Amino acid sequence: MSVNKEVKRITTHILQEMKARGEKISMLTAYDYSMAAIVDEAGTDIILVGDSASNVMAGHETTLPITLDQMIYHASSVVRAAKRALVTVDLPFGSYQGNSKEALNSAIRIMKEAGAHSVKIEGGVEIGESVSRILTAGIPVMGHLGLTPQSIYKFGTYTVRAKQESEAQKLREDALKLQELGCFAIVLEKIPAALAKQVSESLSIPTIGIGAGRYCDGQVLVIHDMLGINKEFKPRFLRQYADLYDIMNGAIKNYIGDVKSKSFPNEKEQY
Ligand code: KIV
Predict the structure, then answer these.
(1) Is 245 exposed, middle or buried, given 0-12, 13-18 or 19+ CB atoms closer than 10 A?
(2) What pLDDT digit, counting tens, does each position of 73-112 carry?
(3) Domain 12-240, CATH
């Protein structure tokens, strides 16, 4: 990891210290250079190159279609922009489930070809061997429990997970296992806030919540959702900080109007 002289890069060690002193961790997704530069410059601690790129960048209904090559393309653009943030990249569906060797090879490609700083992988004890093998190669791993969108066809819906005690208990055990294996953080997606609180308090590594309430050690949102670029997606957990869809739509309509009315370009805007 090359460290810029003026800007201190966030490391997995710094994230642990932040949890220890009770400082909340901010994480946002980005998939391209220009957006990542804005997200990084604003001071976001972790940039996640999420497989949500499959939805927001490519327009797929689920995260399943995105390929490892496509994730590497998105990640390399983000890494070029991120001066301070730790960049974590999702291992996409189909790039790690086969066996732990496949998982390691995919993680190595992400680190080597994109220059990422860590990878994220969905699942608990069932992917323990893959997590261990990736960690053995010196690659930091972030876990992801609760609603794991790559398993959407198993769940059948995107509703809140782990409301039943049996599923909650499995999640507690999975979280402890991922910590024991050496994960540096765990995303908790769409689970009851009380469960996320219990899990966060039981771990020494940070939890990063999305739809998991205020007691997680950090929060993550998909950048297109929080900026209001994505008009249709408005789940209860989402706080929308801007209305970029309307701003961009208005600007584009003004441009079209100016072109049609021949007011753009004017005398000063030509050579
Ligand atoms: O792919 C993604 O954006 C994610 C976050 C929602 C945590 O996994």
Answers:
(1) middle
(2) 999 999 999 999 999 999 999 999 999 999 999 999 999 9
(3) 3.20.20.60
Find out whether the beta carbon of 51 lies less than 6 Å from any atom of ligand 1. yes
Q: Which helix (H) or strand (E) holds 46?
A: strand 46-49
* Ligand 1 midpoint to CA 220 (Å): 8
Rounded distance between C-alpha atoms, residue 252 and residue 246, angstroms: 10
113 is catalytic: no
Task: Let me know: does 49 contact 74? Beta carbons within 8 Å.
Answer: yes
Measure 121 CA to ligand 1 centroid, in angstroms. Answer: 10
Give the torsion sign (CA, 164, 181, 104, 79): positive
CATH 3.20.20.60: which residues of the chain?
12-240
Cis peptide upstream of residue 265 (ω within 30 degrees of 0): yes
Q: Which pair of tokens denotes residue 110? A: 């992400």
Sign, CA dihedral 154-160-164-166, equals positive
Helices (H) and strands (E) in the chain, counts: 11, 8
pLDDT at 2: 55
pLDDT digits (tens, 9 = 90+) for 12-64: 999 999 999 999 999 999 999 999 999 999 999 999 999 999 999 999 999 99
